[in-house]
Amino acid sequence: MLETGTILDITRLVVGIAILSYASYTDIKTRRASNILWVLMGSIGAILLVVQYFTTHFENQNIYYLIFIPIMIGLVYLLFQMRLIFGGADAKALMAIAILAPFQPIIENLPLYQGSVMPFPWTIFSNSIIIFLLVPLSLLFYNITKRNVKFPYALLGYKMSIEKAKETFVWPLEKLVDGQRKFMYMPKEFDVDEELNEFEKNGITEIWVTPKIPFMIPLLGGFICSFILGDILFYLINSIA
Prior knowledge:
- About 30% of the residues are buried.
- The chain has 11 helices and 5 strands, in the order αααααααβαβββαβαα.
- Helix content is about 60%, strand content about 10%.
- The two termini are about 40 Å apart.
- It is elongated, with a radius of gyration of 21 Å.
- With about 240 residues, it is mainly α.
- The protein has a 3-stranded antiparallel sheet.
- The mean pLDDT is about 90.
- A hairpin with a 2-residue loop joins strand 3 and strand 4.
């Protein structure tokens, strides 16, 4: 029979996957994720912590890691204000995760790589970033299959018709400057519709674009990987050392 701590960790895993999966779905469709999702995740996380306190008294867990809940929330808020985290939903998701899973879980022999000294919410965040960094490699592979290999465009996006770009969540990777097509990755002053219309006026029907990939998707992947694999960055550093 499973121990109470294991049951709580499995509950955290299931709740996290369910809410992040739904948030990823709505983020892909509308680029929005309801605030109620993060209220629900945080509330369930708080309830699980109370249950854990009264049933196991945080046995086999370093209770001092609870202090990282407000620290993580404050850090995420700071990163959001510095525009290092672009989506408000992404920031709220990370804050809720800090409450839902403050301790490294132990589910049978998972995660495979244990021993990380970092708080578990940070492990989830760092794993998500690693997964997100795989996107350029995926785009390069896609462009190779399409025989559209032009750097740096091939690492950041793909070619798309102007007409389709207007109906899709993408940013142009090109900008017309004095009639010349120039590489431009998300400049400060940027109006997507205006840029696309400018290309059409100049008879250009296809340009390089970069997809607006919601960070919610790699966050879901990072959450799952953290429960199964553990701290990937910690493992890589130890392997190199």
